[in-house]
Amino acid sequence: MIQEVQSPVVKGMVDTVAMQLAGETPEDYYSQLNEISHFHLLDGDGKTDAHLALGDGILPWMEYLESLHKHHYEGVCTLEIMGSTYYQNPQQAIMNSIMKIRELQFTK
Question: Could you say which of 8, 46, 57, 69 has the lowest number of CB atoms within 10 Å?
């Protein structure tokens, strides 16, 4: 589609849950897209389209971030957290996820 549109403003994006449910990895996207500019980062249960806070599911989200780092990703990364579990205190889920990201150490 990106090739058909031929616009410099149309770029690739990765939706973690759709990627995981399709059995794909960030590497699959890097091999197909010239540029990725948006990444939905979340955790999930591995079976449904659950959008969980980081650490609340089973997805290898740390590996996803390592792949982005390896490819020198400079686009947007959004925490896409949804569900009734987070209705009472959505800010805490976001802050916990941010803390988990900040704790990661990447090698060059």
Answer: 8
* φ, ψ for residue 98, nearest 5 deg: -60, -40
- The domain defined by 2-103 folds into TIM Barrel (3.20.20)
Q: What is the pLDDT of residues 50-78, one digit of tens each?
A: 999 999 999 999 999 999 999 999 999 99
Residue 56 burial (CB < 10 Å; 0-12/13-18/19+)? Answer: buried
CA distance 39 to 14: 5
How far is Cα 17 from Cα 12, in angstroms, rounded to an integer? 16
SS (H, E, C) the chain: CHHHHCCCCCCEEEEHHHHHHCCCCHHHHHHHCCCEEEEEECECCCCCCCCECCCCCCCCHHHHHHHHHHCCCCCEEEECCCCHHHCCCHHHHHHHHHHHHHHCCCCC
